[in-house]
Design brief:
About 45% of the residues lie in helices and about 15% in strands.
Length: about 575
């Protein structure tokens, strides 16, 4: 039974609201100490969506801003940063802060982005309209600020809006401001999806570059995003950038729940017994050498009555996975199926976290690194080859992400309209319901298979069935062309849990529709005569369902032991 009485912070991204309203939260204020100790000029931290990036920047805002400094100091009472000592608390309330998020600049076209940008800057400058009356600024400065607020300038002039605001704040307060920029790459991802990538890159290079590159007014900046956009694309010439990606040790546990934090969270909720299963579903991410739980999923798990289901995938979207399968070649598709089918399967790729979006559809390395940075893969090992290049070994992190892959594979292999028949087919197959199995298999073949696919019949149908059964991961270990009894079966399903039946499939290609039934019966007899079930019996399967299946074009006939 849940014993925790504090509300779950689902969707809470404001640090003051989190603390003042007594939401449950994990103390991450040691991140502030690390940031002060490191003294980086411009720090970029990349993490997947919903891992607490916005909340982390909100925490930095309330700590550093000189606005309401005394009131904000109470938010950190008793937390790690206060216990770290006065050396660090002296920095509290010491600077002007600009905190903004670029997720508002996602548009369907560059023209629409211009409209959003003008409104975005109008509101940003409106927050600082007191600068238009500041005696510390020149008349020219004040006119510029007023012009941006009134949307009187074009895109070229708006490129310098952020750097000019920082300069005005520095003149007014005589203190170098802090820039906190959340989801800096959101407009770029949107531009890539909607076909105006280069125009967006050209603008962002000026907008961010002028604010971050050799800007004498800037105290320091912290940026967050999902990906590191290549220096050549957006951070050209920015030599003071410290990138802390998912493979970096610095700040590796600043976002997300560590194993210790997740264990404490579950103990506080009276759900310690669910921790092992929680790890299978939502753990498995690795930032540097820190093993991290998905905080969004863990919090929603408790919020929704401790039901194991997908929470993160439902809000993050699968657009990157859709790209993966859009024009995937046979080799990459085989790799993907291997990742799904075998728990220890992996792919190796060269390490380069600098993403150039147009390369994702054509460059395997860019694609896999994108899947890593967006949270769809995790790095389990890194190493340097003899030529000095760094590599990493990638796996699917947990069951929640595995289900997202399954959905996209299902859409690719069976077509979006065949999801229900496919799951119904697999359920019937493992329940010994041959007639239901055959009915759904016939529908899938009718809808998804072209006659051109069947030029090499047996290998095609073997690959087809193997692909369809990739969704059995977690319940079965699927083996192909393995020796058992007095021969080699085509496909066998070895149960992973006690009491689950085993399954044997023997496949045949018929020369005509008239041969289908005889070939299916021949396949079923072959299973019995060659004792293909021997290995399944030896491993303790309580029941074994045997199916002989014959194919011709889009036609199929299936015979089962229970017929």
């Amino acid at each position: 039974m849940q014993v925790l009485k504090r509300p779950m912070p689902v969707g809470i991204e404001d640090f003051k609201e989190l603390v003042a309203s007594h939401y449950y939260f994990i103390d991450k204020t040691r991140f502030i100490k690390e940031l002060i100790d490191t003294q980086g000029k411009v720090t970029l931290i990349t993490r997947p969506r919903r891992f607490g990036k916005t909340l982390s920047l909100s925490m930095l805002q309330y700590f550093f801003t000189l606005e309401n400094a005394e009131e904000n100091r109470q938010l950190f009472a008793g937390l790690d940063i206060e216990r770290a000592g006065e050396k660090y608390m002296q920095e509290q309330g010491s600077r002007p802060v600009v905190f903004l998020t670029l997720k508002e600049l996602q548009a369907m076209s560059f023209a629409n982005m211009k409209v959003l940008l003008a409104e975005f800057l109008r509101r940003l400058y409106g927050q600082h309209d007191y600068l238009e009356r500041s005696d510390a600024l020149s008349e020219e400065d004040r006119q510029y600020l007023s012009g941006i607020r009134k949307a009187n300038y074009d895109m070229e002039q708006m490129k310098f809006a952020l750097s000019n605001l920082l300069a005005a704040l520095e003149k007014h307060y005589q203190k170098k401001p802090v820039l906190l920029l959340d989801e800096y790459d959101a407009p770029i991802l949107s531009a890539w999806k909607n076909g105006y990538y280069q125009e967006c890159i050209d603008f962002m290079r000026g907008f961010l570059g002028s604010a971050l590159k050799t800007n004498p007014a800037l105290g320091f900046a912290v940026l967050t995003g999902i990906t590191r956009i290549s220096k050549e694309s957006i951070f050209s010439g920015l030599n003071n950038l410290d990138v802390c990606g998912v493979l970096t040790e610095l700040y590796n546990d600043a976002m997300g729940f560590t194993q210790e934090e997740a264990a404490k969270f579950m103990a506080d909720c009276g759900q310690e017994d669910k921790l092992p299963e929680l790890a299978k579903w939502y753990d498995g991410y690795r930032f540097g050498q820190a093993e991290i739980y998905n905080p969004w999923s863990v919090i929603n798990f408790v919020q929704h009555g401790c039901k194991f289901q997908r929470y993160w995938i439902n809000v993050s979207g699968n657009s990157i996975l859709q790209v993966l399968l859009k024009n995937v070649d046979e080799t990459r598709y085989d790799e993907l199926q291997s990742l799904l089918r075998f728990r220890e399967a992996y792919v190796d790729t060269m390490m380069d976290e600098g993403i150039i979006y147009p390369d994702i559809e054509t460059d395997d390395n860019a694609l896999y690194m994108m899947l890593l940075t967006t949270g769809y893969l995790k790095a389990i090992e890194t190493w340097q080859d003899r030529r000095g290049r760094w590599w990493c070994r990638l796996q699917i992190p947990n069951r929640e992400v595995l289900l997202a892959y399954e959905d996209e594979v299902l859409a690719k292999v069976a077509g979006p309209g065949n999801r229900v028949p496919l799951f119904a087919m697999l359920n019937a197959m493992t329940a010994g319901k041959a007639s239901v199995f055959q009915k759904h298999l016939r529908k899938i073949l009718r809808d998804m298979v072209s006659y051109h696919d069947t030029a090499q019949p047996e290998s095609f149908y073997h690959g087809l069935m193997l692909g369809l059964t990739v969704l059995m991961e977690g319940e079965y270990r699927v083996e192909s062309n393995r020796e058992s009894g007095y021969g080699r079966f085509d496909l066998a399903f070895f149960p992973l849990h006690p009491g689950t039946p085993g399954v044997i499939l023997e496949l045949k290609a018929a020369g005509s529709d008239e041969e289908l039934e005889d070939k299916a019966q021949e396949a079923l007899q072959q299973i019995a005569e060659k004792e293909y079930c021997a290995e399944l019996s030896r491993q303790g399967a309580p029941d074994i369902w045997s199916y002989g299946i014959a194919f011709h074009g889009k036609k199929v006939c299936l015979k089962g032991t229970q017929d």
